[in-house]
Amino acid sequence: MALTKPTSQYVMIDILFERTKSPDGGGTSMNLVDLCVMETPTGKAKSYPLINVTPQRWEVHGIIIAVDTDAVDCIIKGDGGEDVGLLHLGMNEILRTRINYNQEFTREIEISDEGTKLVMRWKGVEMTQIDDGVVARFNNFAIGQLRAFQCTGDLSVLTEGISFLRKAIASTPCRHWNLPSYLSNIGSALMYRYERMGELSDISEAIAAQQKAVDLIPRGHADLPAHLSNLGCSLTRRFERTGELSDIAEAIAVQQKAMDLTPEGYTNLPNQLTNLGASFTCRFERTGELSDIVNAVAVQQKAVDITPLGHGDLPSLFNNLGGSLLRQFERTGELSVITNSIIVLRKAVDLTPRDHADLAGRLNNLGTSFIRRFNQTGELSDITNAIEAQQRAVALTPQDHADLPSRLNNLGGMFMCRFERIGELPDIANAITALQKAIDLIPRDHTELPRYLNCLGRTLACRFDRTGDLSDIANAISVLQKAVYLTAQGHSDLPLFLTTLGASFGCRFERMGQLSDIENAIAILQKAVDLTPQNHANLPGRLDVLGRSFISRFGQTGDLSDIVNAIAAQQKAVDLTPQGYAELPGYLANLGCSFGRRFARGGELSDIMNAIALQQKAKNLIPQGHPNLPKCLSMLGTSYTLRLVETGDLSDIANAITVQRKGVDLTPEGHAKLPAYLSDLGQSFYYRYRSSGHVGDLEEALLLYQAAAVATVGPPRLRLTGARRWAGRYSQLEDLSGLALEAAAAACALDRTEKALEWLEQGRCLVWSQINDLRTPLDTLRIYNATLANEIADVSRRLEHAGSSRGHSHPDMSMSKNTSLEDEALEHVGLASRWDELLKTARAITGFESFLMAPSCSAIMQHLPESGPVIVVNVYERRCDALVLLPGLDKPRHIPLPNFTVEKAVEYRIILDSQLRAHQLRVREVGGATSAESEFLLRSIRSAPIGKHGEDPPVHRVLRGLWEEVVKPVLEALGFSRADHTETPPRVWWCPTGPLSFLPLHAAGIYRGLDTVSVFDYVVSSYTPTVSAITDRVKNSGGRDDTASGLFLTSQPNVDGAPPIPGTTSEVHSIFDQATKGGVRVQKFEGDEMTVAECIARMQDFSCVHLACHGSQNAADPLQSSFLFHEGPLELGTILKSNLKNADLAFLSACQTSTGQERLSDEAVHLAAGMLAAGYRRVIATMWSIGDAPAQQVATTFYEYLFNHRDETDGAMFDATDSAVALHHATQQLRLTLDDSECSLLTWIPFVHFGL
């Protein structure tokens, strides 16, 4: 068809089509693409592309109408070519409108969809007498403005150019021979503005214009290849923004078509080649297909080769080639490729004028290539060059530029890399600042957002590894989960994001010890490895991280398959890593660590030999000053000590101390790993002490342990005072359980009893000690600063609630649920940080310098009970000692126990446990202790039968051993004598440690033969989990509300899933009747008469509570231990969250309420200790299961004693001060009805008293 050159026409301007719903809200979706204008009477038709500016709005900048037209039909077409709507406009109606920018004209369009309304709006119409020369001048002026923008970056110049191009297009008929050129030009101009501003509407309009230009150009026209190439570039850029694969596929198709149509020697061929290469690179970044990046480099290299030196496009061609070489290196890891990338990118930068708008982008690419080579070689000059180039790039980039986020992200990554190499904290602070700003600037729907989130998350995790700040790892996991969620399956970046997320879960596990974290880590990391191609340069690093996670889980579970998997993964990582790579030393050291862990488990000498060889090689490869050197040295030292234990070669311990000392010296103060390195070095000194007996080594070990303990950073398991963090701490306490006992034993050996007491108080019962910290009364502080005291109390309550309610994530959990859990964790971390800040503020007040700090020995001994001593019995493998705390002394009295050993304690524990199992004392039930109860009212105390050869039966043997080896030596040293039966014996408080915690010191004695004797003859015994648990109650003995004084009772005889205990009903009725007769304020509920919430309300209203029910203990999480009610479990965590400010006595007439966890013997993770932590001053509990009938007798006799010894002035109040004596009396009364058989002993022994 011949092209025409009309010179006069009418122009309708600023046309808008808008879709609205009908009044009834119906209608279907629309996708409008073209406006066809049919002129009457000539029948001429013109087509105009519709620009979709919003989901409901489409624009056309102008419609040209011939002067001889009578009317026009405006036909709206959809994306399938169908007619969507029609509007008929007569010229008389059109000409009545004139251009008036203060007025808008509107007509409704006829459409077939009754549920939708579509209107056409326009500003006016004018008749133009513009000839081709004027239109061409519009176009030429616009081209000049575009070139000025390219040089200056002045956005106003570009906007003016676009305006003139729109005038040129509006003035040019659809079939005019210049229209394709004008369309192509406005497409380029809009693309420039998109690159600057990032507005999707610009790129959509550009693609529509360029597509129209391609459609209008006749086949075979010389300009068609250039138009196709431009269209392909715009499609590629839109793909980069939206990730729509159809865009990049179409881009490559049209650019390859442009190549096919372009003859060799054509001047624009280099640009078309480089554009095609850029599209191949983009698709490679999305799919990871190696052939795409190979093709990209090939065509871009050809573009450079055919471009003459001095050509203005050469800097751009160099830049594009360098970028594709960079991507190829990231895929293959070939050093020559990244070196070539740096060479050509340097050329691009050197050839670009200093004031050129593209200089910033080229500097960005150069900096990225430097950082990639640094990551492979570790050459410090590369990281310096990278940061210098990137800082220039950011400085040259306008604040509103669409690429600023990308350049900030790259700069942040570079600071991060230098931090990992040098270890300077300002670098990581700068990194996080830049990365956060990048995320703040990038649109929420941008395809690069996941990559930015990944960089920020990795950096936060790295800072956590250095500083130990829990808020960093919580934030890291949160943003990394979002990065993974936003990344499509099959995306080439997904394995990278999964690796970073999995490694962060692993980091948090190392700090918190929560098994769900390491389970998540392994699942995620395994997926990352599975998605990584076998020849991918990043596969070794991902295998190494996976191996380290297997090792971490092995340390928690002891599952040998984990260590086998760890060694396999890490060995493969080492095998795949070429010599000279910067990451190789780390892989070697980690593999060596895994061999060492397997040696420690299996004892195969070849494993520890391999470990030392690998770690020595790693040490030799790590440059001096590298931040990873201390870690490697500590690992190597640990391997030396392991080999010492096997071979006895003292040179190993000397080598261990040498390398670990160097590691400590190289580690800066405040580093999160420093406590671990100090602890490892202390362990080596301790090993040498055990070999040589040199006291100086022991003292050095203790000093190092103490330095690790008082550090303000690092994992809680390496710091005895811990951090006030809740999630995941229980599973770590086993590691700590022996350390305090060991330290106390060493202090006793040096006659440092004050240190022994301090270390036992700081290193035992951490669960309840932390709760006690949070519940410490603030009355004194309120006198000086009421606002501060109230805020501390508020944060304390919120911390308790967070610790008792937080769940744990797992790999199959939904993104929203995972995010919710991580948000909870982050809030928890924020509370903990605020707690630390508040403590600092309080300690700055004169007189409060030690507020909530671990107390000194003198402080511990200030508030001892006046009625008897507190006796701490420390049990360790090398010695056992009693520390006696008496009022008026400034330090504990030391009583060595040379005849008792930890082996005996363990043996007694095993004997007792076997007898309990033999008698089926697992739950309180009607059939419990039946052999004793069958003669319950007939028998008196008489001697048990003698064994076959005169030896004691098992239980008697245990009780005799405890008497002769522990209790008797202590009582004799303190001058106790047998009490007169008419007098109340004096009181003592037992505080046992280690396996002794499971043994009944209160029942120690000889119960066979003529010379029977027991602790009952000398003292009234109570227990306390720690000394502070008693002293805190002495110190805070006042302040209770007398109106709350009274007794609340409940029985729960028939709980689903537990044996019936009908005796609890008669037990509660009997006690209730006694209380009522005595005028005591009392209330009772039975079974389903009461909900858990109502029970909490009664516990708040009454000072004393009697719970006759089953108990359930959870050693893994003591806060989930519970009392079993008809209406559901009453969990300890729920009780702790209640405000029991008047709590006095808790009688737990339930099974095994003071039974601890064998692996956590020094944590007292049982219900009795938990009720003390909840605020009760005294607790009655049982060490093992009790029979229904004995339980009733002890309970009723206990209360009968208290009611009979009430002061007449008490009125309705109930005073439990004599509860220990009452239990002593009740137990004695039960003994009078029994003999001294094994079964009888097991019937009365379990009843114990805790607290005041």
From TrEMBL:
Q: Which domain of life is it from?
A: Eukaryota
Alphabetized InterPro entries for the sequence: CHAT_dom (IPR024983), TPR-like_helical_dom_sf (IPR011990)
Per UniProt, residues of the CHAT domain are: 957-1251
Q: What is the protein's given name?
A: TPR-like protein
- Organism of origin is Ephemerocybe angulata
Recite the lineage of the species: Eukaryota, Fungi, Dikarya, Basidiomycota, Agaricomycotina
